[in-house]
Structures are given as structure tokens and as C-alpha cells.
Automatic annotation (TrEMBL):
<dbReference type="InterPro" id="IPR001882">
    <property type="entry name" value="Biotin_BS"/>
</dbReference>
<protein>
    <submittedName>
        <fullName>Biotin carboxyl carrier protein</fullName>
    </submittedName>
</protein>
<dbReference type="InterPro" id="IPR011053">
    <property type="entry name" value="Single_hybrid_motif"/>
</dbReference>
<dbReference type="Pfam" id="PF00364">
    <property type="entry name" value="Biotin_lipoyl"/>
</dbReference>
<dbReference type="InterPro" id="IPR000089">
    <property type="entry name" value="Biotin_lipoyl"/>
</dbReference>
<keyword id="KW-0092">Biotin</keyword>
<feature type="domain" description="Lipoyl-binding">
    <location>
        <begin position="79"/>
        <end position="161"/>
    </location>
</feature>
<dbReference type="InterPro" id="IPR050709">
    <property type="entry name" value="Biotin_Carboxyl_Carrier/Decarb"/>
</dbReference>
Amino acid sequence: MGKTYKLKVNESYDFNLNKEQITSLDVVEKPQKKYHILDKNKSYQAEVLQSNFNKKTYTVQVNGNAYEVKIADELDMLISELGLEATAEKKENDIKAPMPGLIVSIDVEVGQEVAEGDGILVLEAMKMENTLTAPRNGVIKAITIKTGDKVEKNTVLIEMEE
């Protein structure tokens, strides 16, 4: 058996999926974060409405119904099992690229106040546009990239201050 993921949907339902179950789905990617999924002869229309890579949470609409999905991989589950979750979140001053990609747009300016969860830029990776959000309330201190830049994982994109 391959890698295992735990999904919590709408804070109420838990699902455990392995890589084989996920790759067995017939998924056709359509423009604008939309997908057609075929599973056991059942058809589903899905769309990613919102994503937060830092918190591993997504808002997904499936056949017209919206779902809040939190994903945990094997490391997240092990950390939880061992009781090692951080009790207090650290203040993040640097917003880094969660994966290699292309900067599609920058939606903030230096000196702008942002609230936790505000969209700050769009990173295209693996043929998907991903909106990166502010990890906390603060002020944009510096923008170290520009639209059209190719970035590697962990590249500092934006610096914040309180």
C-alpha cells in the first residue's frame, strides 16, 4: 500500500484514502480549477473554490454542493498521534513558495494592510492556479518577486510585518 491521506470534510466526516484509490479515479481537468471525475461509473463535476496550502484546507464544490476539506498526510497524522502539534502558531514574516511555479499575479502592494486569509498572489504550478493567502494579519513589508517570475519551492515571495 502507498501513501495514506486523511480527509476531514466539513469538520464532521473523516475519510482515509491511499494513493491507489486516488489514482484509480478517472479525472479530466477543465479550465479554471474545474474537473470532471468518474468513479465506479458515477460522474461528478468538481471545482476548487479556495485553497490554503499552509493550512492544507480547501473549499471544493462537487455537483453544486460546497465542502470544506482538510487534508493530512502520513507525517501530519504521526505528529498528531504523538501529540506534537504546535500549541501556539509562530509569527510568519516570510511568505514562501509552497512548490515550484510561475507567478501569475501579485494582488498586494508594499505598505498594504492584509488580514489572515486574504489572497496575496497567484502561483501557477502543475497546470493549476493557486491563490496564496496571508498567514496572519499584517502589513506587506517587501515583495521580492514580480509577475512572470519562475520560482522554486521555499523561495521568499513576500515579507510581512505587524
